[in-house]
Amino acid sequence: MEATVATGSSTGSGVSVLERLRDARGLLVAPLGIAAVAYGLYWLVDSKELSTVEERNLAWDVVRPQILDHLYLTFWSTLLVIVIAVPLGIVLTRPAYKRFSGPVLAVATSGQALPAYGLVVLAFALMGRGQWSMIWALVLFALLPVLRNTMVGLEQVSASVIEAGRGMGLTKRQALTKIELPLAVPVILAGVRTALVINVGMATLGFLIGAGGLGIGISSGIKLSRELVIVVYAGLTAVVALSVDWIAAIVERVLRPKGL
Known about the structure:
mainly alpha
């Protein structure tokens, strides 16, 4: 019996170590891939004889503000999504408010049901030009993954675990903060990562309403029929998306409760 228990413990520890090594390897490989893509774009531009138009559109003084605008749109829209969706998801999983979950999810779903282009036009019609019009369009578009994951993460916590905590003297609020939310963190963070990548991609439409972003370069490349400009700006969008997802993976690893 003792040998069996020892073997099982050793096996479980080995699996745990392997999982940690696999996660660490993934976090180390990702930046190498991002660096490889970035260097590939640099090599592509450096190895070609650029026309005056291409030089003007690919100059760092032109590219840098677009990257910063893109990050600005992504950061604030995702932060607002978290601030809105996580508390709302918590409220909608409480027994007194569960009946409202259907209508609220329907509204959140409508953000992704609308075409991205149409949502940007709608934001422009309601709020005018500018970055904050685009930010609120991104919030509506990316609200669903975080809201739904928050609800799913909380609802999958076993009722017996919550009852055990209540039996030990925890209040409802303490059970939420010390049991339910920690157990739901991995699912919630997965929704946040999804929202981040969605926002990076959709932020390329920001140029349509004067919000800036890397979509300006892509649009210029299309208008000028310059394939190199299109490829570089599309590649930069991919680099931003991969970088943001990698940072989110690190944050997820840090915030994930031990033992999960």
